[in-house]
């Protein structure tokens, strides 16, 4: 009997830049593009912070709305007393 290796399906990475303009993204694609969980995505929609559209039973996200949401996020300064590591620094 020949040993078999388990078949794994690679996770498909989706970035906003790789998608054509005007495309509607499904929930998984939108969460991946924003690098957040599906749960957090639904929280943002429920709170009105992120816009979405309903098409039949599906909830979809416009690329422009994802970009607008990401652009609206303000960078936060590091916590007082914390050390921020930049690329190239070894600590």
Write out the strand line-up for the largest beta sheet, numbering strands in chain order.
1-3-2
- What is the chain-wise order of helices and strands? EHHEEH
Are there runs of 5+ residues with pLDDT below 50, and where? Answer: none
Q: What's the number of helices?
A: 3
> Helical amount among residues, as a percent range?
25-40%
What is the fold named in CATH at topology level of the domain at 16-72? Multidrug-efflux Transporter Regulator, Chain: A, Domain 2
The CATH architecture of the domain at 16-72: Orthogonal Bundle
What about the largest sheet?
3 strands, antiparallel
Q: Hey, roughly how much beta strand do the residues contain?
A: 5-15%
Look at the helices and sheets and give the structural class.
alpha+beta
CATH level 1 class label of the domain at 16-72:
Mainly Alpha
Distance between the termini: 52 Å
Give the overall shape: elongated
Radius of gyration: 19 Å
* Strand count: 3
Taking all residues together, what is the mean pLDDT? Answer: 81
